Amino acid sequence: MTRHTKSTISPLTWWRCRRRSMACCTCKRTFLRRTVRRLNPPSSTEPVWAAAFLMKQLRDTNFEYPFQENKTPTQYGYKLIGEERFANEHTYSIMHMQGRMPSFSRFMEGKFGKFGTMPDRVKSFGYDLGSAISGKESDVVIVDVGGARGEMLLEVKAAYPHLKKENLVLQDFHPDMVNGESLTIQHWDFKDDSPQPVRGALVYSLTHIYHNLSDLEALRLMKKVADAMEPYSTMLIHEFAKNPTYGKMHATMITLYAGRIRSSREWKQMAALVGLEVTFEVYPVAGEGLVEMRKLRTANGAV
User: Fold this and answer.
1) Are β-strands 290-295 and 234-238 bridged in parallel, bridged antiparallel, or unpaired?
2) Which of 124, 142, 205, 281 has the largest CB neighbor count within 10 A?
3) 0.90 exceeded by the pTM?
4) CATH 3.40.50.150 domain range(s) in the chain
5) Do residues 74 and 45 lie in contact, with contact meaning Cβ atoms separated by under 8 Å?
6) Inter-residue contact 280 to 290 (CB < 8 Å)
7) 82 falls in which pLDDT band (50, 70, 90)?
8) 274 pLDDT exceeds 70?
């Protein structure tokens, strides 16, 4: 069998090998390495890469599913081409190691397309955000978990200009300090064993966070937030609805992170497991929906 070196291999050579059923490991690995280097936009690179190895992984593992977050087709592809340093890393860690997180953060500023500011959007659903943030029980009005650069908090501040820096807390694993003059910025890695550092805030907001997480990891995060909540606190979840509009995104979350987009029934099941209940929900055909959760109350009204 002909074996090609990395210095001689080209996509055409690899294709000819494949046509003859003689594709060697060197040809295939080199072709795939070069292919992934040519893919640049964060909105396409990882999904295309993961999709290429989805069926291969399923067949090789006797269709083992659901995936674990560090054992998705993303990692499986790197394992097959001999990139062992990425084979057990989370997809976000891989992007960080490749120096791609800055471009990804810029992409995420728009959160997959804008559907109005957060205050205007929830108002259109009939949700009273003003009431949710008007309580006097805590100086911390909103904690934005995984809020990147804090765009959502700045939208809230523009709509409610009386809110000050100490009222708005931005939490992220790699917090961007660009809006540090307007927001209180905290480092928090919800993946480790540390609890939610802010207790008793009026609102805990999570925008496009849970869909990156498997059910177990999503419950783990939800439990941490629930433990920090008081009876007056609310959790606001901003996610796309599980419908045909976002079928491709649902599949992408599965192959990249072992995550998923969730339905009303799934949110209610998760809430009940951590001592919360869904008290408001809207699932539009397009754009982020809204799910509000509060502490679960008993039949006599006690929390």
Assistant:
1) antiparallel
2) 142
3) no
4) 118-295
5) no
6) yes
7) very high
8) yes
